[in-house]
Amino acid sequence: MATAHTPATPKVHAGVQPIRAAKGTSFLWRKLHSLLGIIPIGAFFIEHLLSNFEALKGPSAYGAQVKFLNALPLVRVLEWVFIFLPILYHALYGLYIWFRGKSNVVYYPWAGNWMYVAQRWTGLIATAYILQHVLRQRFMGISLPENPGAAFHKVQVELSNPIMLAVYVIAMIAICWHFAYGIWLFAAKWGITPGDVARKRFGYICAAFGVILLFMGLASIWAFVRPEARNAPEIAPVALLQAQPADSIAATL
Q1: Residue 102 and residue 116: Cα distance in Å, rounded?
Q2: pLDDT tens for residues 180-204?
């Protein structure tokens, strides 16, 4: 007589546990990466745009901004602690996240995947641009800390090259996108915008903010290439720099 055998229950292997708060270091590194993108990097970016907007007033006003910046106490310490090192970490860890992630835009062409891809590529463009910008404007050619009056002409010479002008415009678009969407991601990840409705509404605010930043950035670039600025002096007169009010924060690398 045949005996019916109950098939053995297949053994289920445990999967990979999700990352949770206060468990592992990846959570902390990602939180730090997200936070640094807003403070101090994002704050510096806004200040940098506001300061570069001074270029619309001419070489003397722009040089006065550079002069004010380099007169700040412990300016080199502030430069490395709050600008260079945070940007370096944010860029390197961002690349690490990119290499470990998968976008799957071919198989899953949803908006979230396209946003993911755009954020990664704009971050790469921003990193490459910032690297060359710092090297060329901060460490190569005439030293702007000792010669702030030459700041306008130094940028103007670089933008006289059509290729470099295109690089600046493309980079400005990429950085403004990256920062605006980064604010949206920050609010979502840190629980500031819980729920789809709140995130959708905040998305409109971030998009509008990004457009405003882009307008300021492109206007600043235009200040160096506009016809009225073609005869700008190589070094703005020191007397004009001393007479220029320094009531706003400067930023030029």
Answers
A1: 9
A2: 999 999 999 899 999 889 999 999 9
Residue 250's pLDDT is what? 39
CA distance 224 to 217: 12
Note whether 65 and 54 are within 8 A (CB). Answer: yes
> What are the Cα distances from residue 61, in Å, to 48, 55, 137, 168, 244?
14, 7, 18, 21, 7
**Torsion on CA atoms 123, 83, 48, 94, rounded to nearest 10:** 10
Per residue in 195-236, pLDDT tens?
889 999 999 999 999 999 999 999 999 999 999 888 888 887
Q: How far is it, in rounded angstroms, from Cα 182 to Cα 34?
A: 8
Question: Residue 172's domain is classified under what CATH number?
Answer: 1.20.1300.10
Residue 75 lies in a domain: yes
The answer on pLDDT for 106 being more than 50 is no
Number of domains within the chain? 1
Give domain status of residue 64, yes or no: yes
Is residue 53, in this structure, part of any structural domain at all?
yes
Does residue 114 form part of some domain?
A: yes
The CA distances from residue 127 to 86, 90, 133, 192, in Å, are 12, 9, 10, 27
Domain of 198, in residue numbers: 26-243
**What does the pLDDT look like over 120-135, one tens digit per residue?**
999 999 999 999 999 9
Give the per-residue pLDDT at 190: 93
